[in-house]
Amino acid sequence: MPVDLESRDGIICMYEQYFPKIYNFVYYRVYNHPICEDIVSDVFLKVLEHSGEFNPQKADFSTWIHAIARHAVIDYCRRNKPSAGDVDDYMDTLNCSMDFEEAYRIYCEEKNGEVEAFISILNEMEQNVIHMRYFQGYSGKETALRLGINPSTERTLHERALKKMLNFFKTQGISLEDMV
Questions:
Q1: Alpha helix locations (H) across the chain?
Q2: What is the CATH number of domain 1-80?
């Protein structure tokens, strides 16, 4: 569907259509609602500021806006890298005698739920693939197109991500039968 960024109604329609997708895309990378809101606001401002640069011959609008969102998250992460002291301070606060279940429970709470905790064990591209496939409902081909990668690369990333999550479950003593 063509996106009209020239009229007020077109901008409102674009925002209503893409806001939930972009918000979820960003949130599942930063796991912080206020930060996510700031980044998403920046994404939509950039879309409006650079609307003249959008070329439907190169990519569809969804691919273009997701690329802007991905770059905004990367920029945020570069600006806010934790220092070694932050990591050391965090590690010092943990009680080393805690059993794993307690540590994992705290980890899941800090990551705002188990799904986010599981996804956080993946690298950025694997997270993108899992998020697009399972949270946004894209097919493998659609995911590959939106990420600008080959479909076979997308399949490999998808398979590796699933294996990493399955291995994570196995290391926790959770079998596939326990999950079903």
A1: 8-30, 33-49, 61-79, 84-93, 100-110, 114-119, 124-130, 140-147, 151-171, 176-179
A2: 1.10.1740.10
Quote the CA–CA distance of 163 and 39 in Å, as a whole number.
31
Q: Is the pTM of this model over 0.70?
A: no
Q: For residue 86, which phi and psi values (nearest 5 degrees)?
A: -60, -45
Query: pLDDT for 115-159, tens place per residue?
Result: 565 677 888 888 888 888 877 778 888 888 888 899 889 988 988
Amino acid code (one letter) for 122: L
Tens digit of pLDDT for each residue in 50-69? 988 888 888 889 989 999 99
Pairwise CA distance, residues 101 & 78, whole Å: 32
Among 43, 3, 25, residue whose Cα is nearest residue 138: 25
Half-sphere exposure of 73 (CA within 13 A, CB side): 21
Query: 112-175, what's its fold?
Result: Arc Repressor Mutant, subunit A (1.10.10)
